User: Fold this.
Amino acid sequence: MSALKVQKTEAEWKAELNEEVFHILRQKGTERAFTGEYSNHNEKGTYHCAGCDALLFESNQKFDSHCGWPAFDAPAEETIIHEHQDRSFGMVRTEVTCSDCGGHLGHVFTDGPTKTGLRYCINSLALKFKPSA
Assistant:
């Protein structure tokens, strides 16, 4: 894995991000299911990292997985997402982070209904939406 493009101290992240976003991105938190702004969001546009503004997903990659979090079947670019084994909470999952800043986004599962077979389950607070022009 290459070095992160965006490197900041914990104090710098805390000064830039609100408490909830800091908890998700920097402390690997999770928002409660069905509470996120983008869970049922269907507007056309792009989803960017709330920490560094990197383009993560496009709206045509989003689908309703009924899991309570925004779900996508692929990242906008393969290299923008890093995967890590997550053994927290007595489970084995694949955590996904932003490759530019290392921010925790959520997890990816291999039970997606589209041709990729993937379901990127992402915290709304880890995202910033930019509508299409």
